[in-house]
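Re: the 106-residue chain
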Amino acid sequence: MFFKEIQGQQSLQNTLTNAFQNQHLAHALIFNGREGSANLALALALARYLHCENKQGNESCGKCNSCLKHHKLIHPDFNFIFPIATTKKVDSKPTCQNFLPDFSLF
């Protein structure tokens, strides 16, 4: 996802890329909003921009190894995290807990 593909968020895009260029980007960002908003697209574009090896102004190049991995959603430094709801029928310790020891080795 490129910033140029996201409609109506130019001001926020500029704020994020300028913060990175000025070394003032926070260590963590939460993109929260209603379903159908541009939050996921914006997060994907920002991640691609941050990892891009040949940034072109306020946009990622789309051609470097990092951008190609982001396009396929296989970049090793980009992970999706989704909340897991618990109920009486769903255990409060989700299956992902079983994998934490393996992930902690990285």
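Residues 39-51 form the longest helix (13 residues).
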